[in-house]
Structures are given as structure tokens and as C-alpha cells.
Amino acid sequence: MSSIIQLLPDHVANQIAAGEVVQRPASVVKELLENAVDARSTDIKLIIKDAGKALVQVVDNGLGMSVTDARLCFERHATSKIRKAEDLFSLHTKGFRGEALASIAAIAHVEMKTKQDQEELGTQIIVEGSKFVSQEVAVLPKGTSFAVKNLFFNIPARRNFLKSDTVEFRHIVDEFQRVALAHPNIYFTFYHNGSEMFNLPGSSLRQRIVNIFSGKTNQKLVPVQEETEIVTIEGFVSKPEFAKKSRGEQFFFVNDRYIKSGYLHHAVMAAYDGILKDGAQPSYFLYLTVPPNTIDINIHPTKTEIKFDDEHALYAILRASIKHSLGQFNVAPVLDFDRDSNLDTPYHYKDLKGATPTIQVDGSFNPFSDDKVNKHYSSGSGYKKAEPTANWESLYVGLKQDAECTTGSADFSFESEEVTGSLFNDGEVEQTVHSAYQIHKKYIVSSIKSGMVIVDQQRAHQRVLYEQFLINMTVNQASSQQLLFPLDLFFSSVEMELIEELKLSLINTGFVFEETKKDHIVISGIPVNVTESEVSLVLEQLLSDLQDGIPESSFSQNDSIAKSMAKSLAVKTGTPLTVKEQENLVNGLFACKEPNVSPFQKPTFITMRVEDLDKKFAI
């Protein structure tokens, strides 16, 4: 019987490995940036075209490679960072696997230019689909340049699975931000389709965070610093009042490597327990330094998951250090039984003695004496006794006759102010019956001919608002209420790009943009059913819902915006409603085109017939 098992050709094995390493253009960006950092670069440029589908290029001024190394770096399992198996447990670098460049070269056109500082000439290599096309000597500056073009050109099925340019670009920005935050001492620049997206000179960690996320980030940050035998923690967390709906600005770095850890995230949320609103997410930028032999970073292909030796101790230390920082900077409420420093005597008055107040008493004053004594007292003290007015009733004698003579009462008639009847007859008051009732501040019960209908107030309001917003956006006749003082709202650069794409649809809902800048927008008008305090919440929820991508078609885009705004503005469960509000909500629901379900395809009401109730009471 012939053998079944065969060794795969190298180009097929490389394409299979590429499935693990290269999932999208952002994966290429991550690998190339990490290699540039490991090359001890101080200046790194990232150049992107068409969200990385056409070009991903990383240029650095690092150590460069020799001719032999330039050729070997495209071989599988070739690495400069591991010599023996024990090295896996003492890693201080990033790209150590030795499969990244081989996998990238298997599915793209790669052009590499590299030169070492001590060499006069560099090396230029072109690889297309794992095949070496050319290798030449060239005059190059110090460092390395990797240009990856036409990603997945030989695997059309993988290319078809890529998302829109907006989504792919957002993933690239995420990877760029993670590397840039991990190394604030390196100068990073980022260009997309010829436009400069980020220009981040080497700076402190706090300044790097502010440069990336712009806006009022500096006001949000609370420093965290803790050093123990197990871990050293430093970084920043945000103040509770700046918490958002989305989880965008949350970063953990372990030994300068970005990781994802739900366990550590839970520790952060535990530190904020009691000072955050429901559903709010704080921002944090936390850098953990642990001994390399206490972690295993080789458990995931993208190396974003880490196994710690003592997770429980790390959890407790992280939670305690964040709580301490929030309390130290008067962010978290604390019980303080000491005296209030605001009640202390000011410094300039500390040694002064207070003057004893003097009291002056007029011993000759007698309130029961005659008028002469009173006049004498009043003349000396500044008070003047009022002279009694005699026959004051005579002041009004003849006033009525004079008024009738001057106004000519014959020409005027006066209405009687006597109440002749009540606004509602007593019979009508007794017959007034509420047609809707609220149960547990969640459901509205209303009677119908066949029985009763029970309405979920939150889902019903979502349906009403959803259809209103859709009509406004499709008919383009939304009404706005002008603000007396325009609102300044600050966002990160990625969020500003989203707002720019959604701007036309938001205008159709009733928003009026007075000004749009690089890091903030100025809103001078809002939809009539949105209050001024809800504007930031609505936009944050919208950005959170659309962070995975904006639909290409205008109808789908309007539909997503209408759903998001309806979810933000709908009356929540637990909100008491007046009888009039209950009736309006029920009437508005059944005036909708599809009253049966909410915008998220959940039932808005159920009905119960009288027959069903009779069966419940049947013996």
C-alpha cells in the first residue's frame, strides 16, 4: 500500500503559517513595527495605502542587516533572538518566532532594503510569493525598509474576507497605537494615502498618551505607581467622570508588550466599584514589569495573551494600587474624620488677636415713658418715631364718587368675579378612568376590547424613536433646536474620522455642526427630542456601536444610526411615567409601521384576552 503522509512543499507550508500570523493588513503592521523596535530604532515611519491592501511600508533607522541575514530572514524558523529552548523563558524582545517575514513573503510582494551603519552599501531583495526575484547591492541609508504590496494576491479567498477600508484602517491604527504607547521614547510617524495621521516625537509616557488621543486627555489621567517584589506597576487611569460606554482606551502592557487580559480588567473594574455608572468603562494605560521567567507569552499566535505564575497576587496588587491612586488624588470618596482644612485660620491672621466688641447702652431710654423722652432718644440714636395719623378713615371718603365722575361709569360695565361653576362637572370627575397603568416601572398595562395589552416601555419607546429618526434621515426634514451656548466635544483622532463619515447622516437627524476641528467638534443645534446633557452620551453610544465598521450603503448606515440613537434616548426600565406619558407611548407605538417588535427584533408587547383571564380563575 502506498504512503499517505507527505511533506508539504515550502511555499504551501508558508501559506498555512501565514494563516496564523497574517490575518489582515494590521497583522503585517504589527510584525514589521515590532521588528523595527527590536532593531533599536529611534525613528520609525509607517506608510499605508488603501488601508494596507495596496501597501504597508515600515522604515526605520535601526541596526540593519548584513547580506547573509537579509537573505536568511525570509526562511522559516529563522530568528536572531532564540538560541536554545531556555531562551523562550527569558525573552525581552518582541518578534521572536521567526515565521513572520516568511509568512508575509508567501502571500504578498515584498521589497526589503537594509544597510548596517558600518557598511558602505546595503542590500535590496524582492520576494514575490516565497520566490526570490532579485537580490542587488544598493546605496541606502542606515536602517531597514520593508514594503509589503498586494497582500493576499495569490489567495483571493482570503482577500475577499477582508472588511471595508474603514474597518481595516481602524485595526491598523489600533496596532500602531499599541506599539507607540509601549515605546514613548521612539519617534513614530504614520501616513495614510499621503496624509499624515500621527506625528509622535519621543516624549514622556503622559505626553505620548495625550499626543495619541488628543482632546482633554491630560485632564482625565490619574497616575498609578506601585513597586513590589512580584510586579512593578506604573501608568495612568482615568477619572470616573470621564468614563465612556465603549472599551476603546484600555491598554495593558507587560514588559513593554501589549496584552489582553479579562482577569486584570476585572481587577481594574473592582477598583472602580461604587464610583462608576452602570455600563461605564474607565480608560487605563497600565504598564506591568515582571520577571520574564514568571510569564509564558508563547500561548497564542499573536502573543497578546500571557500566562502568569501568580495571577491572584497580581490581581490584588493591581486593584489596591489603583484604589490608592484614586483615593490619593481625591477621586474616590473616602471617610475622613479629621478636621476640615478649609476651616483653619488663614496664615496672615494666625497670630492676630481679635478685638473685644464694645456695647453702648442708653440708660435713659424708657419705652413706657411719654413722647418727650421718646423724641429725645430718637434724635440721639437716629430713629424717628412715626407720628400717629388721626382720622385715617377719612382718606377714602369720596374716592368712589370721584372715580365714577372721572371715568364715566355709564360707559363701562364690570364683570362679576363670583365663581358660577366648576371647570369639570362632578359627574365627569367621577367618570374619569385611567386607560393605562404602570407596573414595576417597567410595563404599561392598557385595556383593549378583547382584554388587555402589556407593553414593555423601553422597547416600545425604542421603536417609536427608531421610526422617527429613520423618517427624518430619509426625508431630510429633521427639525433642530438651537443652543444658546454651543457645545465643545473632544474625541480621539479615530473617533473624529468616524464622525466625519457620519456627519451627513447626523445632520439629517437634526444635529448642527458649527465647526469641526482635528480633535473636537462644536455643535450649535441638536434634534428636538435630545436634551443638551444627552448629546455626548448619544455620540459615545453611536461610536461604540459602529466601532466594528460603518455600513457601506446609505440605508444601512441610516438604519445603524437610528438604532443606536433610539437605544440611547429611549426611556429606561425603572423610570416612572405619568398617565399622560403612558398613554402617549402606547398610542405612539401602535401608530408605528411595525409595532410588534423593537428595532432589535424583540417583542414590544403581549396581549391577554378576557377568556384567558377567565381560565385562570376557573375552578
TrEMBL record:
Residues 435-577 form the MutL C-terminal dimerisation domain. It comes from the Bacteria. Keywords: DNA damage, DNA repair. SMART domains: DNA_mis_repair, MutL_C. SUPFAM superfamilies: ATPase domain of HSP90 chaperone/DNA topoisomerase II/histidine kinase (SSF55874), DNA mismatch repair protein MutL (SSF118116), Ribosomal protein S5 domain 2-like (SSF54211). One of its GO terms (molecular function) is ATP-dependent DNA damage sensor activity. Residues 209-327 form the DNA mismatch repair protein S5 domain. InterPro entries: DNA_mismatch_repair_CS, DNA_mismatch_repair_MutL, DNA_mismatch_S5_2-like, HATPase_C_sf, MutL/Mlh/PMS, MutL/Mlh/Pms-like, MutL_C, MutL_C_dimsub. One of its GO terms (biological process) is mismatch repair. GO terms for cellular component: mismatch repair complex. This protein is involved in the repair of mismatches in DNA. It is required for dam-dependent methyl-directed DNA mismatch repair. May act as a 'molecular matchmaker', a protein that promotes the formation of a stable complex between two or more DNA-binding proteins in an ATP-dependent manner without itself being part of a final effector complex. Belongs to the DNA mismatch repair MutL/HexB family. PANTHER family: DNA MISMATCH REPAIR PROTEIN MLH, PMS, MUTL, DNA MISMATCH REPAIR PROTEIN MLH1. This is DNA mismatch repair protein MutL. It comes from Flavobacterium degerlachei.
